Amino acid sequence: xxxxxxxxxxxxxxxxxxxxDGAEIDISCGQVTTLIGCNGAGKTTLLRSxxxxxxxxxxxxxxxxxxxxxxxxxxxxxxxxxxxxKRAAPDRMTCMDAVSTGRYPFTxxxxxxxxxxxxxxxxxxxxxxxxxxxxxxxxRISDGQRQLVSFAAAIAQQPRxxxxxxxxxxxxxxxxxxMMKLLRELASEGTAVVMTLHELYxxxxxxxxxxxxxGGKISFTGSPExxxxxxxxNEMFGVEDAxxxxxxxxxxxxxxxxxxxxVIGGGGSxxxxxxxxxxxxxxxxxxxxxxxDIEYPTARAxxxxxxxxxxxxxxSRESIxxxxxxxxxxxxxxxxIDTFGSMNAxxxxxxxxx
Length: 354
Prior knowledge:
It contains twelve helices and 17 strands. The chain is an alpha/beta fold.
């Protein structure tokens, strides 16, 4: 292994009880690495072990070529920043005071910041959009704002590697995306970013490498394209009555039953109807949809039956006849589109079949 941080035969757990065993991890600078897995699969335990917050049951963690257990807290802090979901901060500390703690590994025992340190703190607060809170006490801001304060402190620390446990937990959508964008920027500047995430759509879109924890071990490591398949995610998270849809980075429920309604859609127009029918527990069929249509993954999951056509090919007579046969079993046809193009022109024949 040649990464900035790597583990050898690491067993992580509490009180001698192993939660995850045989972990071999290789973390490189300039990449975003995300730990994913179901609740209790050992993501946070593993993260805390590689951060030296939790002693390993067995095995070794190496940071920049050194056994991390032989490094003191200051030596680790000069290279590594850790952002926990519930990082404590004194209530009578201002937000700027809290962010300033990120410079303490470099200030000496008295914790006196230099002008350069203060510039770094201000830059970190501006980068995370919280400089306007600089004089506000921690106990007067929201949980989401506290999370951003902790993130700013980690940035101010200027680490080579940043470890984050569920960093988006308390954030609204806008701040989730802002944080992920900042993490990508930090990686592009040479920082190694390692985090745990429950939001699979974020892990899929922003990670370079994903590490899957399942069954007390690391079950798979790979790129998002390799990790986020329906089969792998369904198995890892024990998904039942639903299926993970890689195209969307989320799951759709799986429906069954004899279709009562046939939906003619395309270009996303049918998705609201599919969801409405699902909520009303009405089985339906859909078609004729091209396999590269934006709504095809939703139809594939939610519809009892989908009549599909190959991508970039006009809807064929054969597909139309199959759709007509399905419509004969339905009580209603719903058409979601107003116009038809050359690729789906034959779908017009289905409108008056119900």
